[in-house]
Each structure stands twice: as structure tokens, then as C-alpha cells.
Give the backbone structure.
Amino acid sequence: MSSEVPSLQSDSLSNPLEHVTLVWLSGVGCNGCTLAMLEASNPGIEDLFFGNIPDAPRVTLIHPELSMESGVDFLAMLDRAVDGRLGPVVLVLEGAIPEDRGDASGAGYRIGRGKDGHPLSLSWWVEQFASQAEALIAIGTCATAGGLPNALGSPLQVRSLGDLLGPGFVSRAGLPVINIPGCAPPGEAFIETLTYLFLHLQQLVPLDLDDEGRPRWLYLHETSPLPPRVEFSPAIGLDLSNRPVIHCPVPSTGWMRKLGGCARVGGSCIGCTEPDFADRLLALARPDPAVN
């Protein structure tokens, strides 16, 4: 992937962008990314609702847990969004996508029924929006790489958003899947990425993504994973002499308002932005067996 995503390949947004429908779908995960998004401030998601960010459009959020509508009314909003009746759409996926095997294994991730009466899977909805959305964002490591649901020994069969859509995927606006990894990433990193995306859709700024589809300016910062107490590492049996370098926004941006975050308050970095952190790095968070 080049250092800068090229300008829009479609003319669907040739006029100033005044309104965007943000469709949020949830897969296999813990809803931590939703909570992180809600914690963002200065700006927060509400600033996009009310049009408080210069040059950014007003946003309407369709979220399975935050929408006032439910049942058939919620499904009707999804239908209108995927049909293009709600204007430009950006799709956000939180959580991993369960394999659609046509049995009860993914029953918890069905959203409505089709005209033939069969339940519609999460992957079906993602694929419908993939052809219509101006951009698709995977938030959290479950959505970007499978995360904990895809860890070794998990009984689940899941895929990331990028795996479902394939390596050559581009959205209606000519963009690859935008990945914001972390467990969970800071909500302000999501709002910042979303704002840059909106400005890019209006051809006001480039959207600089790295080779993994991450916002380059957020994932430049390097940190190294450490156990909670480094001096206990021999008892844990970890070799800390060749620690991997982790790219994460938290050491620089904090968790919220430049405050907090594991790497800023003496906590353990377990490399949660890495695709295989659960198998390779989660041992760093285990307690030292030599300490009662």
C-alpha cells in the first residue's frame, strides 16, 4: 500500500459532504470498542452529531445497542442505509465475524430475516454494505485481525473484516479497509480517524495509511511489551531480551484527554494492537507464579 491513499475514485461525493450515516455492526467481541468510542472527548462522537467539527459533516449513528429504534424499525433503518436512501454511508465493524456455516453456531450474530424467511448473517450484511459504503472501518483487534476470539484453542471460527472482503478490496470511494487495532483502541483515535476520513472524502486532506491499513500518524509510536513487574520475568520464564516493537497510539495520546492508558500509568503493555497478541504476548499479563 502506498503511503497515501489516492484521491476519490468515484464522483458520488463531488459536492460538499453535509451528512453521513455511520452504520455500526457488532460481531464476536466484548463491546469494549463501543465503550471506548463513547468515552472519547474533545472531540467526541456527539460533536459529529451536532456538526461541531469544522468541515466535517453531521453524523447519524445506527448502532445495535445505542439506537432508539429496535426490532423491525431498526432493521428498516439498515435496509434504507444499504439501499442508499440515507445518503453516504460509512460502515464500522466491531468484533470478529463468525463463519456463516448455515447452522446454529452463529445464531447470536443474525440480523433480521430475508424475503425467504431465512436469518441474515452478519457477514451477509457486511457484504451488502461493502458495495455501498464510502469507507469501511474495522475498530479493535477482533475486527482487524480476529483478536481473542481467534486465539489458539478458541472453539470459534471467526474472520477479520479484511479477511472477509479480501486483500484487493476497495470501497466505493476507492479506500481499503481502515484498521484501528487495539483491545480496545482509544476512542479519540477512532474519532480522529473518522474526522480525517470525512475530510479526505471531500478531497481536503490525504488519508495516510500504513501497509496494514492503519492511520499512519496514530500508529507511528513505538513501545515494547513488558510484564507488570519486570524483575519477576525470570520466574515467569519470559525472555525479555528480544521484545517485539509494538505500534500503538496510547503511549503518545493517552486514553482520553491525553490522560491514562496502560503504557502511561505503569501498567503492562501486552501488545494488543498486534494481530497475534493473544497467542504470542498475552503471557506477559499473567501473574508471577512465584508470588503469593
